[in-house]
Amino acid sequence: MALRLGVLEKVATVFKRHGAQTIDTPIFELKEVLTGKYGEDAKLIYDLKDQGGEILALRYDLTVPFARYLAMGKVSSIKRYHIAKVYRRDNPAMTKGRYREFYQCDFDIAGQYDPMLPDAECLRVISEALTSLDLGPYKIKLNHRSLLDGIFAACGVPHEKFRAICSAVDKLDKSPWDEVRKEMIEEKQLDGDIADKIGSYVSRQGGNELIHELRKDEILMKQPAAVSGLEAMELLLKYCDIYKITDKVVFDLSLARGLDYYTGIIYEAILTGDGVGVGSVAGGGRYDNLVGMFDSKNKAVPCVGVSLGVERIFSVIEAKLATKGEKVRTTEVEVYVASAQKNLHEERMRIISDLWEAGLKAEQSYKKSPKLLAQLQHCEENSIPLVVILGERELMNGEVTLRVVKTREESQVRRENLEKEIRKLLGY
Amino acid sequence: MALRLGVLEKVATVFKRHGAQTIDTPIFELKEVLTGKYGEDAKLIYDLKDQGGEILALRYDLTVPFARYLAMGKVSSIKRYHIAKVYRRDNPAMTKGRYREFYQCDFDIAGQYDPMLPDAECLRVISEALTSLDLGPYKIKLNHRSLLDGIFAACGVPHEKFRAICSAVDKLDKSPWDEVRKEMIEEKQLDGDIADKIGSYVSRQGGNELIHELRKDEILMKQPAAVSGLEAMELLLKYCDIYKITDKVVFDLSLARGLDYYTGIIYEAILTGDGVGVGSVAGGGRYDNLVGMFDSKNKAVPCVGVSLGVERIFSVIEAKLATKGEKVRTTEVEVYVASAQKNLHEERMRIISDLWEAGLKAEQSYKKSPKLLAQLQHCEENSIPLVVILGERELMNGEVTLRVVKTREESQVRRENLEKEIRKLLGY
């Protein structure tokens, strides 16, 4: 938890730096709110027992509850972050950071704004978060749903198969093209020729030069969706340049994202360093129609957002610490109050009470007469920097011993100067 | 959420000051773990649907999961805090801060220690938390389960009725004695004489003088449970004196606490200021046998802890702010980047990018050409202290305008000095 809270705090700091407020939604939603939002994955939703009253399920992500909240509250613009747990009846895989209960860290911008301004900020937020977490090199893959639709149309995919082919393309980050091609042909009854045409597109990635190449593709440019998608990508890449993240992003035609609700730009961040094979650590995109699904008049609120997969990040950081042999402190104790003789517990209590009063983080043994060695050992094991040692004779002289645990240096301190001396040694 | 997070952070600060580490447990527990722990209230437990696999329920409090965690992990000593949500199918009452999903803030000390040392620290923790939250005057009522048992025995209550009579006494904070007496006699088939004897005890409260009085009660002193309970109380009051909270605590024989699992000292904090009628805001006690219920060999781990009812605290603080007409800021934005003419959005992006890079909390409009008045209004409404205003002419001279929102004072600042000037105005 100490490690996790450290990560979550860094993420929240980035979200707050971008002016987001935080909201909370209940852990449960009406079952009907979640129905029809997650495609095949709906089978992973945890349902509550019908005990009378509403039929409830545990939230599956933070995006659908956010959209429901906007529609119910008639909120037409907000920049919010939400760090909370979601629930999926999936097969857990501890080493990959896949759990049934796990944190998501979401940042979303809702509102009717000018093209790509909020979208570019989401990419900047991903970049700041991953940089601040010091996870090593990473790339943010970008693509656009309209462009994908334009490519599918140009290749001759029937319109009703767009989403199915899209979710086949989505598997390219885990499976080789041959397998994805097979799925398109065998499972999704696509013509082999059409699949091959798709293959020639989705293998391409790059930057502005890829946009120029695609602009020369006459068949593709006959698709209005492709034209508008490319225009959006071009503007986004320009904004990425202004936001100084050009070296972090890559325009990747194989990126498709599984969820149905994306309507514009989509993105996914992966770590590219050695031995961090954990797949995507952040993802998101634009979803302009989701809020409308919860509004009685179908009123849309355009949204774009990012979700950080912190469980994967936790496991990367844990592995890193394990390699270095480093331990995370689980408490923040600054000073321990110890006694060198028996029955000094009341004196210890008087002193620790003063330390708490002064706002210092302090603890002591709950035994009346603990052994000095055991007390000092506790301090070393828990990396407590300072220890106050009480002895009868010193107490009679109005003094205590202040010991620096690491160096074992000791000094006699007047009791009335104790807090001041402790602060000095702690450096504040 | 801004208000809530502020409260939770203050509470966590107190818990950490006392050297507690934090742990997390899943939101769901095996149904069998919760069974038989909450008496009549078990009907309020939220069950998950049986979708195959384990039979689960949502946690009802943080104490039972903590005890289960200690037993499963063979942890024999720990000082931990846990701030998380629990779930009860209760009738919500918004104004009283009673919800079906609500936060609890728990601090517990587990381990075999000397009498009353951890217990006194829990009282000190309550006191520090309530003081730091600035909720006005409060009292911490204290009692001891052994003493209550001794009193019941001395009055002639049959042993098998102890817990039932105890839960009747527990209602004295909400109901007058007459009603409680009626419940004892009519529902719990107690003799009227016995009930009256109990009444003469449970109406008493005080400090050390009450201990001396009870010591003179010969019938009571024939009960070993009463003798040991009084001894414990006396030691606790002495420790409270050392911890400088004597003026906050009151020994109150009417305090009984509803839960069955308490075995020693029990306590409850109430606000005593005007117009804050929200009942108890913190409570807890010693429960030495709960962990053993989850251990195959019945191995006990003595525990004592406190739970803060922060939802009630939230509603008290909300009411206080409403009275004063004060608003809580929902974001922490330090500086807004505005433009005075059209199409300066790329310049704004360049500047805000530098501000983020410098760690400043900054936001801007997502419109290419927002109106200046609308931008300034946003700053005033959201109490953003500073605004950088871009104008074409100033930009050509390498300058921007820096405006203090409250005073409307403006100054021209060289772009290269912008971050420095902002920090100066923010006071760091």
From TrEMBL, chains A, B:
InterPro entries: aa-tRNA-synth_II, aa-tRNA-synth_II/BPL/LPL, Anticodon-bd, Anticodon-bd_dom_sf, His-tRNA-ligase, HisRS-like_core, HisRS/HisZ, HisRS_anticodon. Keywords: Aminoacyl-tRNA synthetase, ATP-binding, Ligase, Nucleotide-binding, Protein biosynthesis. Pfam families: HGTP_anticodon, tRNA-synt_His. It catalyses: tRNA(His) + L-histidine + ATP = L-histidyl-tRNA(His) + AMP + diphosphate + H(+). CDD domains: HisRS-like_core, HisRS_anticodon. Residues 1-317 form the Aminoacyl-transfer RNA synthetases class-II family profile domain. One of its GO terms (molecular function) is ligase activity. Gene3D superfamilies: Anticodon-binding domain, Bira Bifunctional Protein, Domain 2. The keyword Transmembrane helix does not apply. Its EC number is 6.1.1.21. SUPFAM superfamilies: Class II aaRS ABD-related (SSF52954), Class II aaRS and biotin synthetases (SSF55681). It comes from the Eukaryota. Belongs to the class-II aminoacyl-tRNA synthetase family. NCBIfam families: hisS (TIGR00442). This is histidine--tRNA ligase. It comes from Neodiprion lecontei. The gene is LOC107221786.
